[in-house]
# Entry
Amino acid sequence: MLFGVVYRPRKPHEAAHSERSLGLFTNWQPPVEFKDHWNFAAGGGMGLIEADSSAALAGAIAPFTPFFDFRLEQVDRDEEAVPTLIETSA
# Structure
């Protein structure tokens, strides 16, 4: 399953939190597969992640929830989604 993940720093964003989350990230071995990842200039970022389930993804981001707010959405590639959309709108 593919998931789109957007994460933003929690408020207030403190230097200590930033240092701790960066230290955690540099030693982290993700239990899910990152297909791609981008960083936002203002902090946070987004990624395209493959995971067996939403529960697996939730476990992967759990260490970072004290530092970031997450938005997770299951996504489908066009070649999978469009035929279903066409069929259901007929």
The CA atoms of residues 25 and 64 lie 8 Å apart. Strands lie at 2-9, 33-39, 45-50, 68-75. The longest helix spans residues 15-26.
